[in-house]
Design brief:
By secondary structure, this protein is an all-alpha fold. It has three helices and no strands.
Length: 99
């Protein structure tokens, strides 16, 4: 009877190990995709700033609002990126590590 439970435990551990590995792979894939998406958003915001600074469009209220809105989106996406970034260390934890 004990052998049965040992074999069952071994099988369950192997299955759970495989499942956790698959979850980690998917999480890393999502994290990389989000990083790419956030980089594209930052580039877009930079391009809007450049266009807004051009003489032809300088002072255009619509472009200024668009630049401000894009900056808000980049800030929000940075917060979301921090949640999904594998290498992210919260500022509180970084302060504790230095002390």
């Amino acid at each position: 009877m004990l052998e049965f439970f040992l074999i069952l435990s071994l099988i369950l551990n192997v299955i759970l190990g495989w499942y956790i590995t698959q979850l980690i792979k998917r999480f890393l894939y999502v994290s990389e995709g989000l990083d790419t998406f956030f980089n594209v958003l930052e580039e877009f915001s930079g391009h809007l700033k450049i266009i807004n600074g051009m003489e032809t469009y300088y002072g255009d209220e619509t472009l200024q609002n668009l630049v401000r809105h894009s900056q808000e989106i980049v800030e929000l996406s940075g917060e979301i990126q921090a949640l999904y970034n594998v290498d992210y260390v919260p500022p509180e934890a970084a302060d504790e590590e230095t002390n």
